[in-house]
Every structure is written in structure tokens, then in C-alpha cells.
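User: Please fill in residues for this 500-position structure.
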């Protein structure tokens, strides 16, 4: 990260070109006191007059002269009721502040009146600013000039904020890696490239191993291999292990890694196809999480497994009506070549259980367009076979502001994926509940006794609009969510006992 961030007990205001004051509803006096020595009485009075509404998210920007006769941008950010600040809304406020900054390449100073209720407010505001500042401009001949070159926060808890911010920096690195991988076009972010990125985790102490096509043929991973048959790219199953203590419960993360999903012979319409370069988001999030855990030197025992391939067409591509025998030995009728993610996951989930015997297993996938119809872009779909696991994941969603909504995994949907010719088919016969039948399909490949959750991120990984913490485009949804879940899991579980 190129922006430097410092937490200290006082700010060197003469070096700043943007001053941000975060003020609670009844706290304009706080802003007044900070502004007075910087811009003098007249400017302070006129700014204060315009800030009668400090409800949460009201952010105003002013350009004025300092007492030394220099132009400065003053931003007053409303934080709502005193005591209402938490991590999620404070990070979001950082995002709103970022949007309000007009100057380029600024040294930003932040005074915040949230500390009394939230010691780490400064760290969260800064991370919100930086999450929102991310851009992908490597293919532009004229890169965008950055808005922020440095951030300095005044806080009487500078050490705590500094420590928390270094954790958040590792976290943002993971989020940015995901956004980058998702935004890169499929001619660059192909299976070999994903393998290279996974391999690069070795230098952080992550153990990485790979099954190539021949290895997978030998053990019968035909559900995964079938998806990649129409592409000239390689198909890989990549495992990444980060373990600081073997005595702890093992958590497995499984990700869908379609570097491109044309739909296969059941070809997608042209207007829906381009965005399918992002169909590897689940895999990217798994890589991102492993990178964050290793960088944070977290107490954890986590294995990430990703199935990486490309769904294209050629004379070798699989056809609707084909039957494949999965690694689990269950046979699958391919009713629709565009329902390929569940085929990849079927083998990846089974392999993960056989090879790594995790205590709990979470999968992330851009699995269904139907999840957008059901939940829109703000909530990812959550499916779980354990109420406790579901509620802990939902709790993490609330803590970091990456929200989940649970949908049913009910036996009444199972008939929908019965096949006339094989054990199961890869799409439902009915018209509705496409995300649920997809999850029911996955459940066929989860062993009894394993706590499992499936998160459908098809509509949250990318947005055509700006969001609180990301501009239009890739969001990196999932990294912050699961790092919080994993961290809390092992904190509550310090003797390696199960909390589930
Ligand atoms: N990768 C898609 C799901 C998707 C759609 C992700 C839109 C992001 C945005 C998945 O492989 C797919 O094509 N699913 C089909 C399933 C159908 C054939 C049962 C879908 O959602 O249309
Ligand atoms: Mn598809
Ligand atoms: Zn797909």
C-alpha cells in the first residue's frame, strides 16, 4: 500500500491539505474547537453554521483559507448519535469521507469524536478511506492520479489504532488481491496465472500443492475435469495450507475458480458473458484469505482448496445429456453445461473431506444468477447444515458489513435434481429456487458430521454501482467476512476445542 497512515496524539496541521472532522450529532463543539486554530473564527463560524445536520453519513466539504493564508479543504463528517459507532458503520463512514475529498494527492488529517465509544475508530476510518480508494488502472495509458498520499489521525489510543491498522493493512492487501484477480481479464487471469499466484503464497509459509489433469484422471475427478474439457487451458485442483498449530480444529475453505464461464455448449447470451471473467471469485477469495492469515501470523489451522478451470466450447466440450462419475463415485447427468460451478465444487468438496478431514468446511462460489434475483447485491446467500455455524457467519457479516442472508437447505427441494439416468443431475427440473437447488446439489457431496456452509457470492462480488467501500466493479466480498469468522473461531477456541 502506498499511502502512509500514522496515528498520533496531535496533528501537524501546517502540513495538511485536507482536514477531516468526524463529529457526532450533538458534538459540533468538537469540530469548532479543532477548526478554530486552523482556519480562524470567521471561517469556523460559517462552516459550523452549515453543519446543522450531523446525522450518520452526512458529509460536507468546504474550501477555505487557513490562518497562514493557504488553501485547505475541510470535511465535516456526521457520525450520527453518540455511542452508535461500530466497526462496520465507521469503515463505511471512511468510504463516504473518501468520496467527499475533492483535492488530489492530499495529506489528510483526521480528528474524530468517536473514540470515547470506539477506541479503534481512527483505524477503521482510515481503512474505509483506503478500501474505497482502490482503482484498477493498469491498462489505462493515463492512470488516475491518487486522491490521498498520506493519512494522519489524532487519537489518544495511537498504539492500539496502529496495531489494529497493521492487521487491517494485511486484510486490505487480501481484499485488493481479490479485486485485482477478479478485474483482470480472462486472457490474463487464466488457470496458469491463478496457479502462479497460489504458488506465491509459499513465501509466506503457506504449503501449496497441486493436482494437474493427469493426477485428477487417476483418482477420478471427472466432474471437475469434464467442465474444463472444452478449453485449451489447464484444469487444476490447488490446496493451500496455513497452520500455526496442528492441535486446532481444521477449517477448510473451498472456492469455485472458473477463469471464464461461457456457459459451454449451453452458451450464455453475449450481454451476460463478459462479466464471467469474475467467475473465479470464490477461488480468489480463498487465496486472499490464506494470504491474510499468513501475513497476520494468525492462530489458525486452515486449508484452502480451489478447483480452477475454464468453461468453453470445442469439439472436446462436454454435452448436455453426458454422464460423468464424480470423485465420490456418484454419477451426475449434465443437464446444462452452464451449471458448471457445482460440478467443480462437487469434486473439490469431496477431495477436501477425504484428504484433509476438516472439522468444518465453507465454500464460496459465484454459483447462481438466481441469487441476484432473490437477494440483490447487498446480501450474499448463505446455506448451512448447522444453525450455530450459520449464526456465527451472519454475526461476522454484521461486524464487517458484508451481509449474509440464510436460505433453506430443505429436503423438499431434493426431488428437483433427481435424474432418470444417473444418481443426480446438475440442474433442477422446476423453474424456481435456482440458488437452493444448486446448494442442494452441493449438499450431496458433503459428508454427515461435517459442519458445512455454502456462500453464493454471484451478486455481491461485483457491482455496477459504487458501494460504500468499493467503486463500481469488484468488491472483494468474502475476505473481510471470513477473516473475522476465522479469527473469532480460534479466539473462542484457544485450547483447540470445538465451539460448534
Ligand atoms: N457463473 C454462473 C453464475 C453467475 C451468474 C455468476 C451471474 C455471476 C453472475 C453459473 O455458472 C451459472 O451459469 N449458473 C446458471 C445456472 C443455471 C444453468 C441452472 C445460472 O445462474 O443461470
Ligand atoms: Mn455457468
Ligand atoms: Zn459459472
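Assistant: Residues filled in for all 500 positions:
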Amino acid at each position: 500500500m502506498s499511502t502512509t497512515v500514522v496515528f498520533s496524539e496531535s496533528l501537524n496541521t501546517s502540513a495538511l491539505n485536507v482536514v477531516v472532522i468526524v463529529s457526532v450529532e450533538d458534538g459540533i463543539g468538537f469540530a469548532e474547537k479543532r477548526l478554530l486554530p486552523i482556519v480562524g473564527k470567521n471561517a469556523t463560524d460559517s462552516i459550523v453554521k452549515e453543519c446543522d445536520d450531523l446525522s450518520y453519513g452526512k458529509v460536507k466539504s468546504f474550501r477555505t483559507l487557513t490562518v497562514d493564508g493557504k488553501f485547505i479543504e475541510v470535511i465535516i463528517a456526521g457520525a450520527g448519535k453518540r455511542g452508535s459507532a461500530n466497526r462496520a458503520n465507521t469503515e463505511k463512514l471512511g468510504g463516504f469521507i473518501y468520496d467527499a475529498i475533492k483535492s488530489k494527492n492530499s495529506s489528510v488529517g483526521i480528528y474524530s469524536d468517536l473514540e470515547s465509544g470506539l477506541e479503534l475508530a481512527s483505524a477503521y476510518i482510515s481503512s474505509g478511506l483506503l478500501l474505497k480508494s482502490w482503482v484498477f488502472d493498469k491498462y489505462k495509458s493515463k492512470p488516475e492520479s491518487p486522491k490521498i498520499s498520506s493519512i494522519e489521525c489524532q487519537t489518544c489510543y495511537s498504539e492500539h489504532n496502529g496495531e489494529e491498522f497493521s492487521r487491517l493493512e494485511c486484510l486490505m492487501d487480501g481484499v485488493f488481491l481479490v479485486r485485482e484477480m477478479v478485474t483482470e481479464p480472462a486472457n490474463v487471469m487464466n488457470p496458469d496465472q491463478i496457479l502462479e499466484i497460489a504458488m506465491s503464497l509459499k513465501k509466506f509459509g503457506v504449503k501449496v500443492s497441486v493436482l494437474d489433469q493427469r493426477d485428477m484422471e487417476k483418482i477420478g475427478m471427472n466432474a471437475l475435469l469434464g467442465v474444463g474439457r472444452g478449453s485449451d487451458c489447464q484444469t487444476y485442483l490447488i490446496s493451500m495450507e496455513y497452520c500455526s498449530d496442528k492441535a486446532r480444529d481444521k477449517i477448510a475453505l473451498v472456492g469455485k475458480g472458473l477463469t471464464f464461464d461461457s456457459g459451454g455448449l449451453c452458451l450464455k447470451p453475449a450481454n451476460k458473458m463478459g462479466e464471467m471473467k469474475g467467475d473465479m471469485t470464490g477461488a480468489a477469495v480463498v487465496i486472499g484469505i490464506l494470504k491474510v492469515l499468513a501475513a497476520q501470523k494468525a492462530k489458525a489451522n486452515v486449508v484452502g482448496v480451489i478447483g480452477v478451470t475454464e468453461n468453453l466450447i470445442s469439439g472436446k466440450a462436454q454435452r448436455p445429456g453426458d454422464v460423468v462419475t464424480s470423485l465420490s463415485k456418484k454419477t451426475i447427468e449434465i443437464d446444462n453445461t452452464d451449471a458448471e460451478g457445482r460440478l467443480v465444487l462437487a469434486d473439490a468438496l469431496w477431495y477436501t473431506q477425504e484428504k484433509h478431514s476438516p472439522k468444518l468446511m465453507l465454500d464460496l462460489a459465484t454459483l447462481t444468477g438466481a441469487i441476484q434475483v432473490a437477494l440483490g447485491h447487498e446480501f450474499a446467500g448463505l446455506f448451512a447444515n448447522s444453525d450455530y455455524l450459520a449464526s456465527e457467519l451472519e454475526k461476522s457479516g454484521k461486524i464487517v458489513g458484508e451481509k449474509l442472508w440464510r436460505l433453506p437447505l430443505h429436503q423438499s427441494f431434493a426431488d428437483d435434481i433427481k435424474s432418470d439416468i444417473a444418481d443426480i443431475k446438475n440442474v433442477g427440473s422446476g423453474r424456481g429456487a435456482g440458488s437452493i437447488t444448486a446448494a442442494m446439489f452441493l449438499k450431496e457431496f458433503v459428508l454427515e458430521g461435517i459442519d458445512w456452509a455454502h456462500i453464493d457470492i454471484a451478486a455481491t462480488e461485483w457491482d455496477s454501482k459504487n458501494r460504500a467501500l468499493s467503486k463500481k466493479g469488484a468488491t472483494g466480498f468474502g475476505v473481510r467476512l471470513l477473516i473475522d469468522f476465522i479469527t473469532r473461531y480460534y479466539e473462542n477456541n484457544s485450547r483447540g476445542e470445538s465451539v460448534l
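For context: The chain has two domains: 7-154, 177-492.
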